[in-house]
Design a protein that fits this description.
about 300 residues, alpha+beta, 2,3-Dihydroxybiphenyl 1,2-Dioxygenase, domain 1, eight-stranded mixed sheet, 5 helices, about 15% helix
Length: about 300
C-alpha cells in the first residue's frame, strides 16, 4: 500500500487576520498549532499548521493569513468544504459550543448515512464535522474545553465543486487509485482503500456554478499524501504522461511537494510524510517558535518586525 496515494495529507486555506485565525482554531476548535512559520513566497505573512499532537498527515489544516485581505467566493473549480471526523454523539456538544462562541452553523444533517454539522470559521471557510461510518481510531489533540469524547480527530473528506466531474474523477481513479463509492444527487463520493481515514473526496457536479476566486474564507489547494520522495517522483511521471503541467520537486522543509492544477481547476499538491514537523522542534515544543525557511533566517529580525503580533 505504501506506493499509493495515502489519502489527504493537508489542506491549505486563506484567512484575513492571523491572531483571529490562530485563536479560532486553537481555542474554539481545540486544534494544536503544530508549526508557526512564514509563506515561502511572502515571508511577511505567517503560515500556520493546525492539527493533532504530531501534525500527522491527514490532520493538518494550514493557513496563509494575509492581513486585511478581502473575502473570496467559493464556486466551481475549487475545494468548497472541508470535512473533519469527530466522535459519535459529539455533534450536540459542537452545536452548543458554536452557539456560545458566536460561530455560524447550521442544523445537524445527514449525508451518505452519516450525521454532520456544517459551520463557518471567522472568514467564512466552510467546514463540516462528520460522524464517520468508518471507525476512526486516531488520537485527537485534546484541551480542557475539548476532551477525547468530542475532539476533532483529523480529516474525514474534502469537497470539490466542478462544472463537470468527469475529468477530475479520471485523475482520482486512473492516477490516485480512488473508486466511486456512492452517489447522492449531484454529489459523488470517491474513496481510497490505501488508508483508513482522510480517504474521501466528494465531487459535486454543478454545471451552471460560477467560478470561485481565492481570497479569505476559501481553500487555496488540496494536498494528497505519499510515503516518500521516491514515490512522489513516480507519481510525477504518471501526471506528466497524462499531459498535465506539474512542478519540479519542492522542499517545503517538513515535506517535499509537487503541484499541478487538475482539469477541473483545483490546485492539487502531492506531499511526502518525510521529514515531518519534528525536524526543527521537539514534539513538546511544536508550534512554540517562529521557524523560518533557511533562506530567510538571515532576515529574521526584519521579518519578525513586520509579522502581526500574536497572543
Amino acid at each position: 500500500m505504501s506506493d499509493r496515494i495515502l489519502g489527504l495529507h493537508h489542506i491549505t486555506a486563506i484567512a484575513a487576520n492571523a491572531r483571529r485565525n490562530q485563536d479560532f482554531y486553537t481555542r474554539v476548535l481545540g486544534q494544536r498549532l503544530v508549526k508557526k512559520t512564514v509563506n515561502f513566497d511572502d515571508p511577511g505573512t505567517y503560515h500556520f499548521y493546525f492539527g493533532n499532537e504530531t501534525g500527522a498527515p491527514g490532520t493538518i489544516l494550514t493557513f496563509f493569513p494575509w492581513e486585511g485581505m478581502g473575502t473570496g467566493r467559493t464556486g466551481s473549480g475549487m475545494a468548497t468544504a472541508i470535512g473533519y471526523s469527530v466522535p459519535k454523539d459529539s455533534l450536540e456538544f459542537w452545536k452548543d459550543r458554536f452557539t456560545k462562541t458566536g460561530t455560524r452553523h447550521d442544523a445537524i444533517s445527514q449525508r451518505f448515512g452519516e450525521q454532520y454539522l456544517s459551520f463557518q470559521d471567522p472568514d467564512g471557510l466552510n467546514i463540516d464535522l462528520v460522524v464517520s461510518k468508518i471507525p476512526d481510531s486516531r488520537a485527537a489533540w485534546t484541551t480542557p474545553d475539548t476532551g477525547a469524547a468530542d475532539a476533532i480527530k483529523g480529516f474525514h473528506s474534502v469537497t470539490l465543486t466542478l462544472r463537470s466531474i468527469k475529468p477530475t474523477a479520471t485523475i482520482l481513479t486512473d492516477i490516485f487509485g480512488y473508486k466511486l463509492l456512492e452517489q447522492e444527487g449531484n454529489r459523488y463520493r470517491y474513496i481510497t482503500d490505501a488508508i483508513e481515514n482522510a480517504a474521501i473526496v466528494d465531487l459535486v457536479e454543478a454545471p451552471s456554478e460560477s467560478f470561485g476566486y481565492n481570497a479569505a474564507g476559501t481553500n487555496h489547494h488540496v494536498a494528497f499524501r505519499v510515503k516518500n520522495d521516491e514515490i512522489l517522483m513516480e507519481f510525477r511521471e504518471k501526471i506528466v504522461k497524462k499531459g498535465l503541467h506539474i512542478t519540479p520537486k519542492i522542499d517545503r522543509d517538513y515535506f517535499f511537494s509537487l503541484y499541478f492544477r487538475e482539469p477541473g481547476g483545483v490546485l492539487f499538491e502531492l506531499a511526502t510524510d518525510n521529514p515531518g514537523f519534528t525536524r526543527d522542534e521537539t514534539l513538546n515544543e511544536l508550534g512554540t517558535h517562529l521557524k523560518l525557511p533557511r533562506q530567510y533566517e538571515a532576515d529574521r529580525a526584519r521579518i519578525e518586525a513586520v509579522l502581526p503580533k500574536l497572543d
